[in-house]
Structures are given as C-alpha cells and as structure tokens.
Amino acid sequence: MAFRSSLSTSLRVSVPLAADLQPTKDALTLWLSRISATRSREVDAVELGHIKQLYATIPTRDGSDVSYPWAGPSHEMSLQSGHHLALFPPLGPLSTLNPDGTDSTWSSPPPFARRMWAGGRFEFNLTNELKVGEDVTCDISIEKVGLK
Predict the structure, then answer these.
(1) Residue 43: helix, strand or coil by DSSP?
(2) If you ran DSSP here, which 8-state letter would residue 16 be given?
(3) According to a count of CB atoms within 10 Å of the terminal CB, is the N or C end of the chain lower?
(4) Are strands 5-15 and 135-147 parallel, antiparallel or unpaired?
(5) What is the pLDDT of residues 96-122, one digit of tens each?
(6) How many CB atoms lie within 10 A of CB 94?
C-alpha cells in the first residue's frame, strides 16, 4: 500500500513527582524508559464523508456564511494544514481508557495521572498536501519525558 501524504508529530511530556510517591518511582522509571523508546505508525484515510461532517461544524465551511464562498468538500480536494487533527482517533476499547476518559496509550502509570503538554511539533509536507480520498500515515514518538 502506498501512502501519498504523511505527517509526523513528537511530544514533550512532563510528569510531576511528589515526594510522598517515591515508592512508585521504580515503576515510573521503567515507564519513562519504555515510553521514550515507543514509536507508533497510524494509518487512516481522508474520507469525503468525514470531511463533510467536520465542515458541518465549522462556521466558515458549513455553507451558512454567504460572505464566504464555499462549495463544500469534494473528492481529491486538497486540505489545509490542521485538518490532520480530525484524523487518527485513538481506537482502543473502552476498558483501556483512564478513569478520566483519556486514552491510556501514552499516559504515565498510576498514581501519576496529571499530564502536562510541555510542547510539540508538527511537520507538514507542503508539496504533498492531504487530499480527500487518500490514505495517510502518522508517525508518533515521544521526544522527551522528564520528572518535574
């Protein structure tokens, strides 16, 4: 299977460590080494129906703003940077979610439930835009994880 469009993302995560949680520091240290080495490649498709659903929620794309000319999405239409945020949803079973409903894939072990996004980066290939109807890939890695 050939992938025409791709993007990559990396995250920086900071995990607070309270002094009274030192007994679980070994589990956290093990998680830190595992998560730093984890790489993930997700595959999705830019489907016309999903883009239509997305555009129905955006005022400048839902057709109600007559001052903004818009014909609606169409097959093979190029998408602007940022549309990737509607792609690659976590697909784990409900039983794997954290108690607060977040995806557990990249989460630190209990009791370190507090998470902080300390920075990130998206790289877009501007000569190879996302297009409706194409398969896409997303490469995910954790660039840096540290105790705070």
Answers:
(1) strand
(2) -
(3) N
(4) parallel
(5) 888 888 888 878 877 777 777 777 777
(6) 6
